[in-house]
């Protein structure tokens, strides 16, 4: 790999390829212009900046508005991007109608029929550029981790050369990760990629992610800046956020840079995603590779923060904007 690349960093398009999301500060960061053409142009500009900075992994999903379409168009228009890997996800459908004020923005469906429909749509757009395909927010309660029909269908994709895995959310992420690691098809582990939320405010999945890495799975960290809570101007004043901001100030760096650096410091973290929506935010996230996180910072922030249940409960109440 060229020395100019960032093998442990990626760019996720959850916050930029659809008009509404729950990230803090969207009115400030995106403004009112959120038509399909506006967000396509913004996404392409972000991808151009990411590629120029050495990012070679892009994370999208069927439910991230038109993220797959935007990436497919960008790849086709940029012949120098043959080294870019794309990971996508199935299991949610975008139903927001490109409205910020939609009552429902996405609907979960982990059935075999949903996989058949959505994987066909993904492959139609991305073709052989798709490298990883995750179950989107796999949990024990949906049954997807015990659904033999889904596993067999996903193994068909695995056998075509696409790595398959799970993404996780919620206070029981660790349980979902460990169950996913147990799934085998034809005597081989099925899920060899795990994408989970880990940040200074929500560290509960760490032990399970370490298990995943030891088992040979690739571990991808999402939401390292806690959907904007650990970004300048996005904090909610909670004790964990205040402590993270204070540590960042002591180090002389923005809090987002500390947050991404803390994720990169985890020995099991194979890749950490930036969820930036503009090149300036992306540059700040990428500068995290230069930050040395003092020993004990994670434990210190966890000690003053809330529980995983409190974190996810508060997240579920956040308004999409």
From TrEMBL:
Q: Where are the transmembrane segments?
A: none
Q: Where is the NADP-dependent oxidoreductase domain?
A: 45-303
Q: What InterPro entries does the database record attribute to this sequence? A: AKR2_Oxidoreductase, NAD(P)_OxRdtase_dom_sf, NADP_OxRdtase_dom
Q: Name one Pfam family in it.
A: Aldo_ket_red
Tell me which domain of life the UniProt entry assigns to the organism this sequence originates from.
Answer: Bacteria
Q: Tell me which PANTHER family the record gives.
A: D-THREO-ALDOSE 1-DEHYDROGENASE, NADP-DEPENDENT OXIDOREDUCTASE DOMAIN-CONTAINING PROTEIN
Q: Please identify the protein, giving its name as recorded.
A: Aldo/keto reductase
Q: Which organism is it from?
A: Pseudonocardia petroleophila
């Amino acid at each position: 790999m060229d020395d100019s690349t960032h093998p442990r960093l990626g760019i996720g398009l959850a916050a930029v390829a659809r008009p509404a999301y729950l990230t803090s500060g969207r009115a400030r960061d995106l403004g009112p212009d959120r038509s399909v053409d506006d967000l396509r142009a913004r996404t392409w500009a972000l991808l151009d900046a990411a590629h120029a900075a050495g990012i070679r992994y892009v994370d999208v999903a069927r439910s991230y508005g038109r993220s797959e379409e935007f990436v497919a168009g960008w790849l086709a228009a940029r012949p120098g991007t043959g080294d870019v890997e794309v990971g996508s996800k199935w299991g949610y459908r975008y139903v927001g109608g490109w409205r910020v004020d939609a009552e429902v923005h996405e609907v979960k469906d982990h059935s075999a029929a949903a996989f058949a429909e959505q994987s066909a749509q993904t492959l139609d757009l991305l073709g052989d550029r798709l490298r990883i395909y995750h179950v989107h927010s796999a949990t024990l309660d949906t049954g997807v981790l015990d659904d033999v029909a889904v596993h067999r269908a996903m193994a068909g994709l695995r056998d075509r050369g696409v790595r398959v895995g799970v993404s996780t959310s919620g206070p029981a992420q660790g349980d979902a990760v460990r169950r996913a690691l147990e799934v085998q098809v034809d005597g081989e582990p099925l899920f060899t990629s795990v994408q989970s939320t880990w940040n200074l405010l929500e560290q509960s999945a760490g032990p399970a992610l370490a298990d995943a890495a030891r088992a040979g799975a690739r571990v991808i960290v999402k939401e390292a800046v806690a959907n904007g809570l650990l970004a300048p101007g996005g904090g909610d004043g909670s004790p964990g956020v205040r402590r993270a901001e204070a540590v960042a100030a002591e180090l002389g760096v923005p809090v987002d840079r500390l947050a991404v650096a803390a994720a990169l410091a985890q020995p099991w973290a194979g890749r950490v995603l930036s969820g930036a929506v503009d090149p300036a935010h992306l540059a700040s996230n990428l500068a995290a590779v230069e930050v040395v996180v003092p020993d004990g910072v994670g434990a210190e922030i966890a000690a003053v923060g809330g529980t995983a249940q409190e974190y996810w409960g508060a997240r579920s109440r956040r308004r999409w904007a």
